[in-house]
């Protein structure tokens, strides 16, 4: 690492020539007009600009590079330096002081605009405190208007008008020949301008021409993860980069792939195609219209790939641990990604079908998206072994222990790696003990009282288990609710006893009104007939069903409720009975005993 102080003029020349470019993971610049004017004022006063940071490429960049905004004509050039920090500042200065065209920026209302930057010579040679006011921007046509564009307040549309008004155009400040020509016209316009120009040269132009940019230059040997760590630390004001964006730039810069295929590797295109196939078959992975990061994310996919890669490396003796930490993803070779991505994509397809068998088919009903990562890795590693007799039973137990025990709500990377290794050994019968996720999972029975929203994985889990165990809708009564009907019939959790009724008739139990115990999956059509207490709406639903009353009561009972308690309006008896049945449902799914309030186990 070295600290240099190149002249601003030379830095902007490097931007124009393509010698200084951006790594492709950098986002586009987003500075507005007001900030650009303040930045220019800083340069004219020769005040410190702040350190910028760059990376030597050594002639071969480890990232795909792209030019700064406005220097697209140099996009075929090979950069000597990649700009890691300072993009907004240098892009703004390049466009305003070097580019022979209007600057693309935004106003204070975030509206796009194009403008030119000038310095009011008379104001600029006054007090430094007035320098901000001396820097002005005018529209693309160089005519500044007010009063809804009915009044012209400043016309700089020609060189003659610029000289007459005393506004120097900053876009060619580093072009000595053009500055000289403009100077000649300015002093000829008025003899008094000779002295004004002398002061302007001393107090403004000299500062700009001698302005240095402190620049830290990292060596070309700096590792990828170090570059990314440095970038994120110095770009604290922006949106944090994710691993996918960093790998996109790294893979695009892979020259071996370019040489073999004639073009750079487009990771976003590959991910978009994978995601499209998955979401088309299994909506639980996201809504295609909401983009490739809705639902199952690119980071989830990369983590699964890394788990597969490091597991295989460990088995082959070339690795020491199974891992999917950030550094593992950043160091994931393109060749390995291309080799493993099809397997992992197919594995996620199997995961989608597994979730469907658990009655989980919508993104909003998915308890933990993150739990799918180790499950997909396991499927990719042992393939059809997950379909062997007894395998799915163990996978299901592991899955439901993770959901109902709420095991995937904290730090995950360690759990990912343990679950992959332990679940594979358990499926293969090579381990006596179940995975830690199974062994450590517990469901306290009073947890039912507090499961009130979809923010909880266990809440979504019980909702899915009710459907899986055979709940029949109270309007569409022909068959149990099928996963394919969840969207068609707009099935959602509905209150059994209305909150208002509980507040009036069982005021001591109002805290239980929104518990999952008092909710059940029903269609939108059924909910429209559920006005008033159960004793009233059950009669309505029974008549609408066309069934004999006792048969309809059997339908209601498929939701694990005491039908007589509903008819009698006995909320307390209903609640205690249903809580008991839900606990039995939870125990069956987890394959283990539930811990009760008195700390005894059953």
Structure description:
It contains 28 helices and 14 strands. The radius of gyration is 33 Å and the shape is elongated. 42% of the residues are buried. Mean pLDDT is 91; it is low at 597-602. With 602 residues, it is of the alpha+beta class.
- Binned, the helix content reads 40-55%
Quote the beta fraction: 5-15%
Distance between the termini: 64 Å
Q: How many strands, what sense, and barrel or not for the largest sheet?
A: 6 strands, mixed
Mean pLDDT: 91
Strands of the biggest beta sheet: in what spatial order?
Answer: 1-12-3-5-2-4
Strand elements, count: 14
Low-confidence stretches: 597-602
Task: Return Rg in Å.
Answer: 33 Å
Helix tally? Answer: 28
User: In one word, what is the shape?
Assistant: elongated
The structural class is alpha+beta
List the helices and strands and how they pair.
Layout: E1 2-4, H1 8-17, E2 20-23, H2 33-44, E3 52-56, E4 65-66, E5 81-85, H3 87-97, E6 103-106, E7 112-120, H4 121-124, H5 131-134, E8 135-139, E9 143-146, E10 151-155, H6 159-165, E11 167-169, H7 176-189, H8 193-209, E12 215-218, H9 224-234, H10 243-252, H11 255-261, H12 267-281, H13 298-316, H14 326-330, H15 334-357, H16 372-382, H17 391-404, H18 413-427, H19 436-440, H20 447-450, H21 457-468, H22 485-488, E13 492-495, H23 499-505, E14 519-522, H24 524-528, H25 534-545, H26 549-557, H27 563-568, H28 571-590
Parallel strand pairs: 2-5, 3-12
Antiparallel strand pairs: 1-12, 2-4, 3-5, 6-7, 7-8, 7-11, 9-10, 13-14
